[in-house]
Write a structure and sequence with these properties.
Elements (H helix, E strand, L loop, with lengths): L9 E13 L5 E13 L5 E14 L9 H11 L8 H13 L39 H7 L4 H15 L5 H5 L2 H14 L4 H15 L5 H6 L2 H29 L4 H35 L3 H9 L2 H8 L5 H14 L3 H9 L2 H6 L7 H14 L3 H9 L2 H7 L7 H13 L1 H4 L7 H12 L6 H10 L3 H8 L3 H12 L2 H11 L4 H4 L5 H6 L7 H12 L8 H7 L2 H8 L7 H14 L3 H9 L2 H11 L4 H14 L3 H10 L2 H8 L5 H17 L1 H27 L10 H4 L4 H4 L13 H5 L43
Antiparallel strand pairs: 1-2, 2-3
Helix pairs in contact: 1-2, 3-4, 3-6, 4-7, 6-7, 7-10, 9-10, 9-12, 10-13, 12-13, 13-16, 16-19, 19-22, 21-22, 22-25, 24-25, 25-28, 28-31, 31-34, 33-34, 34-37, 36-37, 37-38
C-alpha cells in the first residue's frame, strides 16, 4: 500500500503599473508594469513568490492636431486596466506631447542605432510623371496590382507604396502585407536592369525598412542586400562603358558645328544618365550600410568585394554620394581584413584628392578614414608618397579638423623614414606656435606626442630651437614640471651640433631638479637631458659639487632603488661626466665603481645596462687616477674579459676597446687578455679547419705554415688595436663619427670632435615599449 499526501494550495497574482512614457518614434504610450505571483499554502502563508517586469504599448494612431486629448486620455484608461485612474493627468500630458511632437520620415528609429552621418537626399523617382493622388494605406492592394503590368504602371504602383513607406507609422502595416513585399521583390529581381527609376523606387522602399533594426529580417528574407550588390556592380561597369564611348566621341569629333552639337548632346545625355545612376547607387549603398550593422552580413558583403566597389565609387564627383561611400569605408576599416582589401585597391590615392575639399562633412569623414588606415605602416608610407603630408599640415589651422589631422601626423611621425620630411612643410612652426599659445594650460596629448616624435630628428630639432624656441620650451617645462614637454626637450638635446650648445644656459636649472623629493618621471627626463650634454667646455665637476649630485647618483645605482629606466639614466649620466678628468677622479673616490660592478651583476641579462656600464669603465680608463682604481682595486677587467665574446656586437666592441687600453698599461692583465683572445680565436680556427676537413674535395683557405707567426690575427681581430699593444688614449680621441647624426645599432662611438661619445642608447627605441598613444 502507498500513502498519498495531498497539499491544497492557492495562487495569487498582483499587477502594478510602475511608470508611463511615450514611444520614441511611434504614436504610442509605453506602460511599464510589474507582476508579482505568489503560491499560498493551506494556512494562507506564502510558500513561493516571483516578480517579473513587463511593458505594454498602447498605440494611438488616431491622434491628430485636432484630437480632443482629454477624451482620448479617458478612453485609454478605459481600455488599459493597468493604468490607475489617478494617473489621468499624466496620460493627458503625454498625449499632448505626442500631439505636438514633430517627426521626420525615415529618420525616426524604433531601436536606437548609431547616428548616421548622412541620409539619402530627397529622391525624385517620379520624373516624367505627375502623381496627383495621395497614397493611402487602405489601397495598398490596388497599388500591388499595378506591379503586374508594364514598366510605367510598375513605376507608378511602387511610387505610391514608397509614399507610404516613407512614413514610419505605415511600415508595420506594410510588413504584414506579404503580397506587396513579395511583388516588390519580384519586380526588382526581374526588371531592375530595364528601368533605373523603377529600381531606385523599390530599393528606396526596402531602405525605409532597413532604417529599423527589427525590420532587417524582412529585407534579408527577400535577399534585397544581394540584389543591391549586383545592382551596384552592374552600374559601375555600365558607367565605365559610358565613359569609354564618350571618350571615343570626343576624340573623333572634328571642330565643326554639327558634330560639335552632337558631342554636346552626348555630353548632356551622359550627365543625365549619371545623375539617375548616382541616385540609384546612393540609395543602394545606404541600404547596404544599414544591413552591415550585423557583422555576419558585413562579412558576406566583404566576400562579394564590397570594398572594391566602394573604392571605385570614390572616382565620382557627387559629394553626397562620396559622403556615404567614405562613411561606409570608415565603418569597414575597423576590421583587419577590410583594411587589407583597401590597401590592395589604391584607396589612399583616391582619398588624397578629397583633401582639402569645401564639403565639411566629407572632409572630416575622409580624415577619420585615413586615421583608421594610418595604423598600418604600409598605408602611412602611401600617404606620404601621394603628397598628403603638406595637405594634412595645412589643416592644422582648421579648428574643426585639427585634432584628426594631428593624430594622422602623429602616426606618420612614428616612422623614422618620414620624420625628416616634416622639414619641407610648415608643420614645425605651426606646432611651436600652438605650444606657445597654450601658456599655462595643459597641452593636448596629440600635440605634444607629435612634437616628441619630431624632435628625434636633428633638422626638426634645429627648427624648434630657432629664435627663442628652446627658451620658451625650457621656461614652460620647468615652471609646470611638464614631463612630456621635458621629454621633447630631451629628444632635442641628443643631437650634436649647434643645438646642443644652447643647453649650457640651462644646465644649472636641470641639475637643480635632480632631487629625491621630485617625482621619478620628472627626474628621469631632466637627468636624461643632462646626460645628453656632451659639451667640451662644460665643467661637470663644478656642476656635481654645486648641486651635490654625487650622493644622489651613487644611491640610485643600488638595484631596486628606483625604476630601471631611471637607474639606466644614472649610469649614462656617469658615463657623460666621466669624460672630465677631475670629475672621474671624484666619482672614483666616492665608491661609484664598486656600485657599478654590483649593478652589472644584477643587470647582466639586460644588454642596455651592460653596454652603458662598460662604457663608463671605458671612459674612466682614459684618466690616470681612475685607471689605477679600475685595474688594481676592482675586478672590472675580469668582468670585461667575460663580456669580450658577448653575443651583442656593441658590447663586444666597447669591451675590446676598453681591454686594449688596460692591456697597454698593465702587463699582467695584458697577458690575460691576450691569452683569452688567443684561446677564443684559436677555437674558431679549429672549428673552421674541422668544417673544411668534412669536405675533402675543397682545399683549405689558409696556409698554417705562413700564418703561425701572425699573432695580430689573434690579438687584433677587431681591426682597431694593433697586435703589439702599442696604443695610447689619444688614438681613441681621434676617432670621429663619419655620418653626422645618423646612428646605426652596430656603431660603437657617436663622437664629437672634443671627446669620445657613448654607445648609442636605446632610449626611444626599446622593443618592449609601445608607441606613445595617449588619446582615445
Amino acid at each position: 500500500s502507498r500513502s498519498i499526501l495531498v497539499c491544497l494550495c492557492s495562487f495569487k497574482a498582483r499587477v502594478t503599473a510602475n511608470s508611463l512614457d511615450v514611444h520614441p518614434t511611434e504614436k504610442a504610450l509605453v506602460v511599464h508594469y510589474e507582476v508579482e505571483a505568489s503560491i499560498l499554502g493551506e494556512g494562507g502563508g506564502q510558500m513561493l513568490g516571483e516578480r517579473k517586469e513587463g511593458q505594454k504599448i498602447i498605440r494611438v494612431k488616431s491622434l491628430s492636431p485636432s484630437t480632443d486629448v482629454g477624451a482620448l486620455a479617458k478612453k485609454v484608461l478605459e481600455e488599459c486596466k493597468l493604468i490607475p485612474s489617478s494617473r489621468l493627468p499624466q496620460v493627458e500630458q503625454l498625449l499632448y506631447y505626442l500631439q505636438t511632437r514633430k517627426t521626420s520620415p525615415v529618420e525616426g528609429k524604433v531601436e536606437k542605432k548609431e547616428k548616421k552621418t548622412v541620409k539619402p537626399r530627397e529622391l525624385t523617382p517620379f520624373e516624367g510623371m505627375e502623381l496627383n493622388e495621395e497614397a493611402s494605406i487602405t489601397k495598398v492592394d490596388e497599388y500591388v496590382e499595378l506591379l503586374y503590368e508594364g514598366i510605367p504602371e510598375k513605376i507608378r504602383g511602387s511610387a505610391l507604396i514608397l509614399q507610404l513607406a516613407r512614413n514610419p507609422d505605415n511600415l508595420e502595416d506594410l510588413l504584414h502585407n506579404e503580397a506587396a513585399l513579395g511583388a516588390l521583390a519580384r519586380v526588382l529581381r526581374e526588371d531592375w536592369k530595364q528601368s533605373v527609376e523603377l529600381a531606385t523606387i523599390i530599393i528606396y522602399i526596402f531602405f525605409c525598412f532597413s532604417s529599423f533594426s527589427q525590420f532587417h529580417g524582412v529585407v534579408s528574407h527577400y535577399k534585397i542586400g544581394a540584389l543591391c550588390m549586383s545592382v551596384v556592380e552592374h552600374e559601375l561597369k555600365r558607367h565605365d562603358v559610358w565613359r569609354e564611348e564618350l571618350r571615343k566621341k570626343n576624340k573623333s569629333a572634328p571642330e565643326n558645328g554639327s558634330l560639335r552639337r552632337d558631342q554636346d548632346k552626348a555630353q548632356r545625355k551622359y550627365q543625365g544618365l549619371l545623375a539617375k545612376q548616382e541616385q540609384l547607387l546612393r540609395v543602394s549603398l545606404y541600404l547596404l550600410l544599414n544591413l552591415a550593422e550585423d557583422t555576419r552580413t558585413e562579412l558576406k558583403m566583404r566576400n562579394k568585394n564590397i570594398v572594391g566597389l566602394l573604392v571605385k565609387v570614390l572616382e565620382r564627383d557627387d559629394e553626397e554620394l562620396l559622403v556615404l561611400v567614405v562613411s561606409f569605408l570608415k565603418k569597414l576599416s575597423i576590421f583587419l581584413e577590410n583594411k587589407n582589401d583597401m590597401a590592395e585597391v589604391d584607396t589612399v590615392e583616391r582619398l588624397a584628392r578629397l583633401i582639402p575639399c569645401e564639403h565639411e562633412d566629407l572632409l572630416n569623414l575622409t580624415l577619420r578614414l585615413l586615421l583608421n588606415l594610418s595604423f598600418d605602416s604600409g598605408l602611412r608610407a602611401k600617404m606620404v608618397e601621394v603628397g598628403l603630408l603638406p595637405k594634412l599640415t595645412a589643416l592644422l589651422g582648421d579648428e574643426s579638423n585639427r585634432q584628426v589631422a594631428m593624430r594622422i601626423l602623429y602616426h606618420i611621425s612614428i616612422d623614422d623614414r618620414f620624420k625628416g620630411m616634416f622639414v619641407y612643410t610648415d608643420c614645425i612652426p605651426q606646432l611651436m606656435q600652438m605650444l606657445y599659445e597654450h601658456g599655462e594650460d595643459e597641452i593636448e596629448a596629440e600635440l605634444i606626442s607629435v612634437c616628441i616624435n619630431l624632435a628625434a630628428n636633428k633638422r626638426n630639432a634645429q627648427l624648434m630651437c630657432e629664435g627663442n624656441g628652446l627658451k620658451m620650451l625650457m621656461k614652460r617645462a620647468l615652471k609646470m614640471k611638464d614631463c612630456l614637454l621635458m621629454k621633447m626637450i630631451r629628444n632635442i638635446s641628443q643631437h650634436d651640433g649647434p643645438t646642443k650648445s644652447l643647453f649650457i644656459d640651462y644646465v644649472g636649472d636641470l641639475a637643480a631638479e635632480i632631487r629625491s623629493e621630485e617625482e621619478e618621471e620628472w627626474v628621469l627626463e631632466c637627468l636624461g637631458t643632462l646626460a645628453n650634454l656632451t659639451i667640451p667646455d662644460l665643467d661637470w665637476e663644478l656642476v656635481l659639487k654645486e648641486y651635490n649630485l654625487v650622493p644622489y647618483l651613487k644611491d640610485r645605482l643600488k638595484p631596486g632603488s628606483a625604476e630601471d629606466d631611471l637607474i639606466l639614466e644614472v649610469v649614462i649620466m656617469i658615463g657623460t661626466v666621466s669624460m672630465d678628468d677631475a670629475c672621474a677622479a671624484m666619482l672614483a673616490k666616492s665608491g661609484i665603481i664598486p656600485a657599478l660592478i654590483e649593478l652589472l651583476n644584477a643587470q647582466q641579462e639586460d644588454d642596455e645596462f651592460v653596454c652603458q656600464i662598460v662604457y663608463v669603465f671605458y671612459q674612466m680608463v682614459f684618466h690616470q687616477a681612475t685607471r689605477d682604481v679600475i685595474i688594481k682595486d676592482t675586478q672590472a677587467p675580469a668582468y670585461l674579459i667575460d663580456l669580450m665574446h658577448d653575443k651583442n656586437a656593441e658590447i663586444r666592441k666597447v669591451c675590446d676597446n676598453t681591454l686594449d687600453i688596460i692591456a697597454e698599461y698593465d702587463e699582467e692583465w695584458g697577458r690575460k687578455i691576450q691569452s683569452e683572445k688567443f684561446r677564443f680565436h684559436n677555437n674558431q680556427w679549429l672549428e673552421m679547419v674541422e668544417s673544411r676537413q668534412a669536405d675533402e674535395s675543397e682545399p683549405y683557405l689558409y696556409d698554417n705554415d705562413n700564418d703561425n707567426d701572425r699573432t695580430d690575427l689573434f690579438y687584433s681581430a677587431d681591426g682597431i688595436t694593433p697586435g703589439d699593444g702599442s696604443v695610447s688614449p689619444d688614438f681613441f680621441s681621434d676617432l670621429q663619427a663619419q655620418n653626422g647624426d645618423l646612428h646605426h645599432p652596430g656603431d660603437v662611438f657617436d663622437q664629437t670632435t672634443a671627446s669620445p661619445g657613448r654607445p648609442v642608447t636605446a632610449y626611444g627605441f626599446r622593443p618592449d615599449e609601445q608607441p606613445f598613444y595617449q588619446y582615445s
